[in-house]
Structures are given as structure tokens and as C-alpha cells.
Amino acid sequence: MDAGYGCPGEWRCLKAAAEGDGKFGEPKAVVSFVKCECPGRTLVPNTGMAIKLSEIKPDEIYLSSCMVNAKPGCPYTTPEEKAQMIEEKTGVTVILGTHSYH
Known about the structure:
mainly alpha, globular
């Protein structure tokens, strides 16, 4: 939250992953968090680097509910476009959203 924006991937995502709530469906281990950071140029390479450095290829990659449902939305790419770019780079399925907590 260094720029005053809500942080995609805070306690709600961690709780949903640990308990298997929302889009997770079953308990999942969080291997890394990558922030989008406007205008999003680093999202895809940083995701690839997180996989490389962790030495763990994830079963799925989740874009946080905060990122997917943001209002106003990102002026540069849609969540679907971000997901497609990440899938093309990593070969890993990207899930849009994590939880429905408020």
C-alpha cells in the first residue's frame, strides 16, 4: 500500500487460500505475491521471476479479487488480458478472483 492504494493480496486472500474459500475451492499454499503496480509493465515478468526464484511451478495463478473487481478499473489492460499474458508467459492457468469477502 505504498502509493495509498488497497493492496491486492492482503489478509482476505490469505484466509481464502488457507481455508479453501471462494475461487480456491480447497486449501492452497501461497507461494508468492506479485503486485501489479501501474501501469502493470512488471506484472508478467515478475510473475515469471517469482516462479523461477521459488523453484515451485504453481498449479494455478490467482489474480486477487481486488485487482479483478477494481473500480475504477485499470486504464491499461483488463483482468482477462492480464490473465492471458501471464498464461502465455508461464504456461499456468490464471484464475480471476480469489474470494467474496467484503
